[in-house]
Design brief:
The chain has about 500 residues and is mainly α. About 80% of the residues lie in helices and about 0% in strands. The chain contains 19 helices and no strands.
Amino acid sequence: MSQTRKFIFAAGSNYLRMIATMVGMFFLTRGMALRWGVDDFGRWSLITTVMGFALLLDLGLGNVVLKTAGSRDSESASAILSSVFVGFFVLSVAATVVLSAALFWMLPNCGTQVKIAIVLMGFRATVGTLPWTVFRSTLYARNEMSATNLMQSLGILLYAGVACWALYYGAGMGAISAVSLASAILDSALLVLMVRRFFPDLKFRFRFSFAVLRPMLSLGGASMAVNLAGFILLKTDPIIVKGFLPIAQVAIYAVALRIAENIFLLCKQLVNALTPHAIRAGASGRKSDMAFMYQRATRYVLAFGGAVYVTALALGKSAVCLWLSKDYESSAGILNILLLAMVLSIPQLVGSNLMTFSGDHKRIAKYVSIGAGINVFASVILVQILGASGVAYGTLLTTVLIDVSIMIPVACRSFQMSLVRLIYDLCRAVALPGVIQFLFLMYLGKHFVPVSLAGVFAQALAGGAVFGILFVVFGMTRDEIKMFANIHRSSPYEVTSPPPEEVL
């Protein structure tokens, strides 16, 4: 299989998993919001947000697992992966107690259903998930990304289907949290079986050795700082809202945040598929490879993110009201702010991924840590002035100050490429298609007011088609168009040092 075709299959499977996640979120969020009411949905959103912090226990070792699992030294890799697994397992048990206690403190006098949800979601987010990410990373590092994503897509849809069926028959938070925990256990078990089947050379043992992890702590520590900053940017917002505003505002903000998070993760899948190539290019030390990947990948990911942002800007309010109810109308404004921040951060997202595997991980960690502090400070100040939207503006401010003003120029210098050339390339490819797409959607919205979600979806597809056509015309070279048109004729896939034109 050619490098290009393999990359597209991997990216496509990532998108399949994210689409399954978004479909599940669409039906589950609607069911929870309408069945439970604004206040209980706000409590559920707070529980899932706080429990999400369990993934910080990754301690940055996720990237260590990626690099280690791809090693041909199976004995050494097995020792490192086993130590990471045991470390995650022990930390998860402690995290279950700490996070559950924090939620009982934040939600005093909560009912029985809420208490059950706190305990079960605690186990689901920690012991039921974190240790088993070692197996998922192993499959990714050894080019089994497509099979893993297919399996997880089916699991997500199964969970969403069972949970929606339970909601239809009046299930409360306790029952839904039990379904979620069972889904996580099944997913983890399947990951273990896939690793044992595909890679019998890896021998996992319940054994911890700090000595085998010590050489990896530099990369792990920097990655931990990056992960922590990312969680602060995405996960602290509902907690800040809860600290200053009524619980109903948590639900309003959570709707916008869930949509923005899923779209952000959808954009990130193309970047994740780039990781194996970034590891090889970083090991080779060829700046031309890195610059080529950075410019092209940024252009493609930004095109997708820009098209989604324009769609939300034009149709977001109608979509939210038709999806949920008028009670959530203000979520659309918050969503537009969060999506703008996401679009502006895309060049930094791609650059950070590439720089992490080319030895610049410490510099990335420094800047994103500063950004996390600015985000929390700005959000706490602005929420008291602007309400829930002030928290979103805090995220946008951080993106402009750190991602746009500092990290994008740093990435360009690291890859020895022109910042002006990058900006020109991105504006030429995305700006004009975005403006025309927006005008087209505004025209449709004025003359054909959507009265159902199907109508909103149809207009969104039409706008996306307009953007896509214009992007091909203005944002792709003839060589790129020819490359995608002739994927089926590509040469056999080579593992070692691909030429720059075969990276994507």
